[in-house]
Batch of 3 targets.
Target 1
Amino acid sequence: MIEDTHKESKTMTDNFRQLKRLMDFSDEEKFYYLQILARSKDGNSKATKVIKNYYIANEEYLDEHEEQIKGLCEFFHARAYLRLNRRNYKDVAHENLKQIANSLSYEQYEFVRKSYSKACGRTNDEENKIWIVDIDENLPMRTETETLSTVIQKIKELHTEIQKDYTVLDVLETPNGKHILSNPFNVKKFKDHFGEHSPDIKKDNPTILYANI
């Protein structure tokens, strides 16, 4: 039998346990937006394709669908991405109407079916916002550990200037590096400190929930 060397080269990223600890289901008017995406950079033949969207209102729903999410990622060689800033049903509904009206005005009827997911991507209603600091390309340090320590130390320093209980929440593995999850901080001072080597700051982007690529 010929061995599947492609499977042997896969790298699994499973952040279900870590991310569930950060999720807040106390407000019934809010939900988390999750997408399974198959991307060309992961070896798929087409541009980024949405496999499935999930709208997660409670922990039970996520637990019930965990195996399905992982299975779809495996089958489609895809990644599951979670937006940690919650969406509000009312805000999404209003934005959805705008998206539908816009599609109808341009007679782009085929896009109407995508309007709700677009609305989820364009709105969030999170008081305690979570940003992502992307450590895909290391700063000019000796090790990744030193890079993470330096970046986290700077974020914590900037948090002390804010009169709120802000903190660095967690560090996640990704297929290409690390995601530092943090409450907001002064972006200008952060970028001024690191200069041209400043890591990317993503204020409402998804982080990786699961991948095996």
Target 2
Amino acid sequence: MSDWSGTGTPVSGGSGESTLSIAYGDLLSEVGHFLGYGRDATAWTQDQTDDADAAVQSGVRQFYFPPPIAAGQTPHTWSFMRPVTTLEITADDYEYDLPDAFGAILEPMTFEPDNAWEAIRIVGEAQIRSLRQTGSTATTRPKYAAIRPKAFTGAAGQRFEIIFHPTPDATYTLTYAYTALVNQLTAQYPYPLGGMAHGETILESCLAIAEERMNDGERGLHHTKFLERLAASVVRDAEAMRQEFFGYNGDASGEDTSFRPFRAARVTVGGQYYQ
């Protein structure tokens, strides 16, 4: 399992941090300079500080969840925002809360090592409700799971839960990857995810937001530069995620056909997961 705190707070790496890494103070200074406040944040008014900080936080959000590079394309999911974690499920309980930082599940869930069981497929929540409605409530090893939002009041951010079918008949430890929701940058936790390699993309994202807000919603040069840098960052990230194994071309006969036949073949192309 990867070393992921669950808080969304990136760790600087201490003295080993690259001297070319971009940090919150750098982003704040560059945005402030662009807005005409100068680079010394200690000389700004509170309103100027708030303006620059708001542009930085929005710019980082835009980088973490970027727009499609071209019309019709799927937005990229960064490899560094795909933590892998575990969930322990127990007998007779088919509903479980997901982490507060959960954004979306990325792949089927797998069982403990050395088990030759098929991975748990992610299906629509209504499909599991339909199976339970028809009386299919026997307890055994789960084969399907669905994500659904929990009741939302506005007192906290949206949370999610996962439901399984069939209901577990024993304790199982499941492993899965998900898109993480991370916290804002601060002086205490200054480093954005992605590291030095994506620093210029993050900076241009922040400047693009500042430029758009300064010009009453009109996009300009920095938005164009952000898209150029984003394309380069996506290529770099896709290289990091490139897989040589393209799955097993097997025969799915004899498998459960409650839904469409399950195929073991799975593939990641350009950082995007397919089944």
Target 3
Amino acid sequence: MATTQFGLNHPLTVKVWGKKLFRAALAETYINRFMGKSKGSLIYVKDELSKGPGDRIRCGLRVQMSGDGIAGDNTLEGNEEALTTYTDDVLINQLRHAWRSDGRVSEQRVPFDLRDEGMDALKDWWADRLDTIFFNHIAGETGAAANTHDGHNTPTAPTSAAGNTRILYGAGSTSTTASFTATSSNSGSIRQVNFQLPVIDKAVNQAKIASPLIRPLRVEGKDKYVMFLHPNQVRQLRTNAAAGTVNWFDIQRARIEGGERENPIYNGALGEYNGVILHEANRLPALSTDTNVKRAVFCGAQAALFATGRDNSDAEMRWVEELFDYENQLGIGAGMIFGMKKTVFNSVDFSTIVILSHSPNPA
């Protein structure tokens, strides 16, 4: 009797399981709801290198013209304005991880399929890694481990140049990072640098007057921003009930009155305030110089870039199965050629603002 089998590394096996892993891992990530191929997405997905060679994708930004123009019959020729453009590159490289069984006796003891178990293990690992890379970049975590936690692109600290600053501080503080950290240990000033709603207003205002301005996302026909908050900052918002101010309870009432939203960007949202959709994100890194200082990140459109290489052109990871030790152990490996980074044009963070606050762990 003839039978049909798909053994180790059969082309169809590789393709089927590679697609399964890619989709399952991406579905499990926190960031999937923010990814898209349109320029209005928070994480702009670029796939130009999935169809050809190369190790980087170059993205361009054209700055709006600023000239006065020529009135009446005055001569226009010779008074034209040159276009100003800037570029940002996202590099791609390979990242792999693998799983191996203990051996045939161990496999005999368990009632599950090794391919399924291997995919679940790698899916969880990839989901965690992609989320970590994203938050390392948008938070400006310059201490991220090279190649494995930086998405093959070196994270850069938030822009701090005068006129283009992308750093804000907790309510009532205009400190530099150094003085902010120093004053945060003073019990008399902690109340002035924790996370409160007025700093969200400040971020919205900064986004609107920035040059170039931080473009909002278009959500259900309206302009919106997204802010990711550390859990400690969320706790401060929940417990702030100062008289005469908008507080957490007002946010929740507005969320309930708004009803269920169809757009995935609202999935899991804490609520919305001043056109900013608030999300809690436990992978936001603490400030390395003072772990009591936490970072929130305000984002507009194209805050980050995600690019894939040729091996992942059909939304699949590279899937490899091998037998070791005289076919006693099965190993499963999966890899992806990709890159991720926040967008930076002309040495200025394009669509992110980092907010530092004194938000220590609860006692």
